[in-house]
Amino acid sequence: MENIQKIKNIIEALGEHKDSEAAISLLTELGTNSEDDEIREMTARTLIKKNTHESLRVVLISKGKGINDLSARVAMASINELLALKDKKEAIKILDDTIKMHSDEEVRNTARSVRALMTFS
Amino acid sequence: MEIGKLSLHKTINAKNIQNENTSKENKLTTNPFGVSFKGNVIQADVFESAKKSSPLNNITEKSKLFASAVVSGINNFNESFKSRINSIVSFGKKVTSDFMDTIERIGNTEITFDIEGFKNKLFPDRQYSVKYLSNKSVDELKGIWTDIESAKG
Fold this sequence. Notes:
heterodimer; A: 121 residues; globular; B: 153 residues; mainly alpha; 0% strand
């Protein structure tokens, strides 16, 4: 088994883990900072699927992570995952707060675009 | 005159015979020391002790020798028998103590079989399966992740 597949399996296991808080912390620490696009993409997907305030904050308002990732592949995968959520309430609330209050304009613009997509989806 | 001739002839013959005998003996004798020796060599021990011992004394001395030999033989046998018995006894004691130690060790030994480890060795990828990883704690998963990252270089 390749190393990347092993890490993917760890991320998947963390997505199903009972200790959700610790799992999100580990995904934020190692997954979102990985050099590998594939790992960052999978981490973002997993965090969005968790659909908690803490996990969504990481991928929506952190610069260089989730929808703000420099890799278009990671950003697009994150947006697709957000659009696929059944319960979008928490995500929309965080996006609204980001549009209103975030200090970085680029982050605010990205949040606005995603918010629009979610409204029409 | 004839008697005189005869006696003279006899004298000469006797001298000749004596000379022949001496030369024959000299020829037959071997001298191991390389020293010339004229005369007869004594072939057998002819010396006799001045004090002759009686046959009874001989028997007594011989029996004493025999008795001492028997006694020393018995002593030697006893010693060797004792040492053999001792070595057999000590061997038996050692075997018994070793056996008891083994029994004690067996009594104190816990036999465990790491089935998970065995399965992981049999199927190396199994320990990276999602099902297997899901049962690990987050700290353990962090350790595994870090190990993989460091192995990647």
